[in-house]
Design goal:
Rossmann fold; about 450 residues; 3 domains; binds iron/sulfur cluster; alpha/beta; pyruvate-formate lyase- activating enzyme; 21 strands; binds 5'-deoxyadenosine; OB fold (Dihydrolipoamide Acetyltransferase, E2P)
């Protein structure tokens, strides 16, 4: 027996998908803290296992079922073990999850996890619990206050949820619901609280974060205003935001990239395709040219900005020429980093329901490989170009060797130094001397 208190229960959370799920997992763990749970790092020692899931592509959703399959023996060995499924698979599949995996005790969607403690209690009485509502009440207002414990230097903060864009391929408008922004003052107070607990960098999160319009004293604040107000918080050194739609990149937000020092020079701005025909079929409501023009304006405001994007290859109807247009756009933008995916038809989305002819599997695979090679080349070149440059690093963790410390540069590169004077939470200037596979190394200046 361990020496933990008799009423302490152990919670194992596994998080899939985007950063918004990472934030939600933190909040779920904190709210279950009130029911006596502490987090553990392996499912074997848990009294409750919670999978916070992603439904964006078929593979992501299927992973959940294979992971659940692995817990069968644990449940047989310990019938009191509770198993929960949260997140977007929970929202999309609801009771179907319990039909496919009867050992699941509770299913909770991303908008109703403030009800998790009650659901956990119900599941404890041998019942199952299902909640995939889009409730009227704001879950953030109903969650327990965040604990006062010291925090790691970089934190996520969800400010906006849901999406009204309805890209033809995407499940998010259905799993996360309509666009909602958290009131500005609530965001400010959560941010101040994080800073008091040691946070130096905040990444503002939203499925469509640049559409943020949080209520403030009878009016609203857009994202640029929120960033400028956050920049006034003493002790907060860095602000980032993700993820954005090109059509919501308004003038004041572009300007903030030029004049707000705490806003980091890194922008994730997905375009999905370089072909206007495909962009139209995707219901993106912008063209390749308007995207390129936007990038030009952002670069005029902040010339050293690092750009990142998302791409889908093999969308129904994509020809070789359409794909080449994507390759051309990638060459023109020159990304610091980018994610690319093979189109995955998602139930309930317009693209899947139309049942348009899928691009041949091998053709799509080859396109994906070519695109990824190009992106890797650009990523490599951007990283290698850091050699000899001085960057700011926020140190977040110790490395594998003695005195080794790791952190992130303003451009989101992982940077390592070996220096006994560096403390976690410090921001130091570092001269980059080497570019490795996935990180840079350098020496601390001064
Ligand atoms: N198939 C493949 N990729 C998708 N994405 C979203 N939906 C799909 C889908 N059905 C990608 C988009 C989006 C990122 C988060 O995931 O590129 O920007
Ligand atoms: Fe999905 Fe498009 Fe909304 Fe992004 S903007 S979450 S891709 S519907």
């Amino acid at each position: 027996m361990s020496d933990t208190k008799a009423n302490t229960k152990k919670l194992y959370i596994k998080t899939y998908g985007c950063q918004m799920n990472v934030y939600d997992s933190e909040r779920m763990a904190e709210s279950l803290g009130g029911s006596g749970y502490v987090e553990v790092s392996s499912p074997e020692e848990a009294d409750m296992i919670l999978l916070n899931t992603c439904h964006i592509r078929e593979k992501a959703a299927e992973k959940v079922y294979s992971e659940l399959g692995r817990y069968k023996d644990l449940k047989i060995a310990n019938p009191d073990l509770k198993i929960g499924v949260a997140g977007c698979v929970a929202q999309a599949e609801g009771a179907e999850i319990m039909r496919r995996q009867p050992m699941v005790d509770l299913v909770v969607g991303p908008q109703s996890y403030h009800r998790l403690p009650e659901m956990e209690a119900k599941a404890g009485n041998g019942q199952t619990a299902l909640d995939t509502d889009f409730p009227e009440e704001d879950k953030f207002e109903h969650l327990k206050a965040r604990p006062k414990a010291k925090r790691a230097p970089a934190a996520f903060l969800t400010v906006q949820e849901g999406c009204d864009k309805f890209c033809a391929f995407c499940v998010v408008p259905y799993t996360r619901g309509a666009e909602v922004s958290r009131p500005a003052e609530r965001v400010m107070s959560e941010a101040r609280d994080l800073v008091e607990r040691g946070v130096r960098e905040i990444t503002l999160l939203g499925q469509n974060v640049n559409a943020y319009h949080g209520a403030f004293e009878g009016g609203t604040w857009g994202l640029a205003k929120l960033i400028r107000e956050l920049a006034k918080v003493d002790g907060l050194e860095r602000i980032r935001f993700t993820t954005s739609h090109p059509n919501d990149m308004e003038d004041d937000l572009i300007a903030a990239h030029g004049d707000c020092e705490k806003l980091m020079p890194y922008l994730h701005l997905p375009v999905q395709s370089g072909s206007d025909k495909i962009l139209k079929a995707m219901n993106r409501k912008h063209t390749a040219e308007s995207y390129l023009h936007l990038i030009e304006r952002i670069r005029a405001a902040r010339p050293d900005i690092a750009l990142s994007g998302d791409f889908i290859v093999g969308f129904p109807g994509e020809t070789d020429a359409d794909f080449e247009a994507t390759m051309d756009l990638v060459r023109e933008v020159n990304y610091a980093s980018a994610y690319s995916f093979k189109y995955s038809p998602r139930p309930g989305t317009p693209a899947a329901e139309k049942g348009d002819k899928m691009v041949d599997f091998d053709v799509a695979s080859e396109r994906l490989q070519r695109l990824q090679e190009l992106i890797t080349q650009q990523q490599r070149a951007f990283q290698d170009a850091m050699i000899g440059r001085d960057v700011s690093v926020l140190f977040e963790k110790t490395g594998r060797q003695a005195d080794q410390m790791g952190g992130k540069s303003e451009y989101l590169h992982a940077v390592h130094v070996t220096d006994p004077t560096v403390q976690i939470g410090e921001m130091r200037r570092v001269r980059i001397i080497e570019s490795r596979t996935n990180s840079l190394s350098g020496v601390v200046l001064g």
